[in-house]
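Researcher: Go.
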Amino acid sequence: MAIGKVYLIGAGPGDPGLLTLKGRDCLARADVVIYDYLANPLLLDYAPATAEKLYVGKVRGNHSLPQEETNALLLEKARAGLQVVRLKGGDPYIFGRGGEEAVFLREHGVPFEVIPGVTAGFAAAAYAGIPLTHRDVTASLALLTGHDHPERKLSSLDWEKLATGLGTLIFYMGMSNLKLISDELIKHGRPAATPVAVVQWATLPRQQTLVGTLKTIAEDVARAGVEPPAVIIIGEVVKYREELRWYDNLSLFGKRFLITRPRAQAAGFARLLQEQGAETICIPTIEIAPPEDLRPLDAAVQRIGDFDSLILTSTNGVEAFFARLAANRLDLRNLAGVQLVAVGPKTAAAIEAHGLRPDLVPEKFQAEGVVEELLAQGVAGKRILYPRVEIARTLIIDKLQEAGAEVVAPLAYRTIRPKGQEEMIRRLLSAGELDAICFSSSSTFDNLLAMFGDELKTLQGRTEFFSIGPLTSETIRKHGFAVALQAEKWTIDALVAAMVDYYNKNRGQN
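Model: Structure:
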């Protein structure tokens, strides 16, 4: 069997958006992913669902797998002919033991490739608003480890040169030796008033930045309870933080939201929230499934040219309809002369992605808006196709039929409750670390309630419920729960805008 190949990939400092494109593409081809503590688990989503995913993280005092066993694992998987991704936090060759692993692989004849990543020191400074060099302050910097090789002592560093010969100093893994580092630099000539920043969980919404001086920073950190993982930045450049900080000024910085919509649709929602500094956890409470019997939908699709209008009220409905159009060996030409109606802009965009532009998008992005505008056109004697979800309201069918239309409404898809999600959500709820749960439909709430029942009552006052629109809000309130926020328009963009406004107002009141 041909030997496989190992890719040593820098996962970056934590923000999944900082993974390189080449790293992402290699992950997409991986047979095995062996990942570290500081590699964001969200990056595993780039790997194939069939890929084996093995955690070998190391935390101070708790090594999931000793380095020697990690090396042996890389060798075993490569010799099995597999494409192996070794996903390492930051950059593999900067205090990541990537060099040791590369030497081991070369010695055992295993092909490897190194894909650099954004190292934590550079990212921590950028996200904290600290330029590591500035021509008015310094043109030199050094990267150092504050947790040296066990056979050498940190005190063996040339402290005099470090103290006076370099501008900016960045210490990795130095929290347990912070007082020693500060004392040695002061003793060897660095002014005690030199600014210091400690950046914990850099680039993530839980990032915390503490600023002090060489004289005070150890006590400041102990008082604030800041713990690893953290990067220590020492130098006059730290003074720029208050002027240049941007990340922790974002409207949703530090907020943690649970997204309950289907995974395929959650990515865009999560991205919008992350752009505002939020941490998002995507655990769907519904999944999209085809109807148990596709024959009624197929029969309608095969006669699509006989209809005057086609009403699509969700992106899921769009995808279900066009999938059956293709399955029945039909194409866009068969829709000539059929009025396309989209319930709102997201549904319209989904239709446009298939090469067609909707003829009607109502001003009210819900069933009532569709009915109002079609009734204004006149529907008597018209034949209308309305592929729908299993639990859809009958408003469109009832109102249009009352006005004299023939409405054919086959099931296009169902929403079902995913299996195996309860424990993950229960841990989040019991920890009390969620600022809000975001519901994009009544069914996302109904399924969460079915999972936990009265347990959800314990969230009142700790975790808020945000709703995409009035129907979802009505469902939540019907079960005795409060809705803290509702979008003005029934879209994800509007919900995110409302969340930003909500927290900006609350911030102004604090």
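Model: The mean pLDDT is 90.
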